[in-house]
Amino acid sequence: MFEEINLSIIDAIKTYQNMNKNKQPLSPHLSIYRWQVTNTLSIFHRLSGLLLFLAALDFAVWLGSIALGSGAYSYVKGIYSSNFLLLIWLLVSLSFFYHLFNGMRHLFWDLGKGFEESQVKWTGTLVILFSIMITGLFWYLLLGKFG
Amino acid sequence: MKIIKGILKLLCLASFEEAKEHWRSQRETAVIVMVLGFWLIYQLLFVLPSFEYNEVLFWAAEPLNALILLLLSLFLIYHAELGVQVVIEDYISTENVRKYVLLLLRLLRISVVIVSIVSISSILIGGGSS
What we know:
Chain A is built from five helices and no strands.
């Protein structure tokens, strides 16, 4: 019986490899994943990280513009406060808080805590709720202050 | 020796980290970015009076603020590079392409390190060119 199961796994792997001839399989295998809360959150962690990488570049540009003087600063400020970019900052702030809270969850896992399936699920839900709430609070305070 | 190696890594003067070293650095920088990130949020919401040039310059030229802004920028791009490095290694299987994308990542980080250091120094020394 176990041999049969093994054989079917090998078949599945072979089929997958044939689909990607001459290519190494991509890891993690997004296309054959069964989508559920846990792996969706994990992928969001990476996506938000990538967006935050771009935001880190923008942060350096902002610092540079302060050093260059008021002309350069107003130019960058003009671009950064355009409607489109404001939408991006909203996404960046959501990514920031999500990556922050989910990162804490990762750190707890590294300490060996919170690994039970039920814990993984409720902490994951908490991370989503928290990041949306804190992002809302952040923009409420920010817009209240700067209009 | 350990602190010197740490400073070299922060300034992007060390090679790509692997395995255990990468794992440790990713978590250490995560905690530091977390603390400095909270500082920036606090400053934006409760300290910085407006986004007018003079106000921002005055705020950034405050020596403690300048130091924290520099550290934030350096640790942020360090942590970001560690993360993006793994994504590249996971998803780009062609070795040649991977090499060049990693090189591009390095160039972006070096640019950020240079821009951050030069900008903060210039803000501290001259307070901007008005």
